[in-house]
Amino acid sequence: MNEAETRAEHVDPALKAAGLSDIHAIMSDMASARITIRIPETLGQRLRHRSRLKGQPESELVREALETYLGQPSEARPAYELAEEAGLIGCIGRGRKSPASDLSSSPRHLEGFGKSK
Fold first, then answer.
1. What is the pLDDT of residue 82?
2. Rounded distance, CA 9 to CA 92, Å?
3. Displacement of CA 25 from its chain's centroid (Å)
């Protein structure tokens, strides 16, 4: 089944009578610009496959990919989540040469504290 046949199956009868498609109704609600791009067939196949797996429209997946690539996420994320994703959470080891887990209570680290030199 090709893309045109797939779209034809999903047209609301009321929209069809008016000569419009569901796609037109959805896009008319969005305040956005439309662009047309050409992609290799293999990339198109991967996009269609991912769209089916995630249950999301191809256009939504493309918007998410562009937002990620351009560095403007669609929603705010907590700093902890971003630090964890960047590999910063838990990056300091606990070996012999690592800092103590609590410097304020370790006698070794308090040696000479408060004494003038």
1. 86
2. 55
3. 26
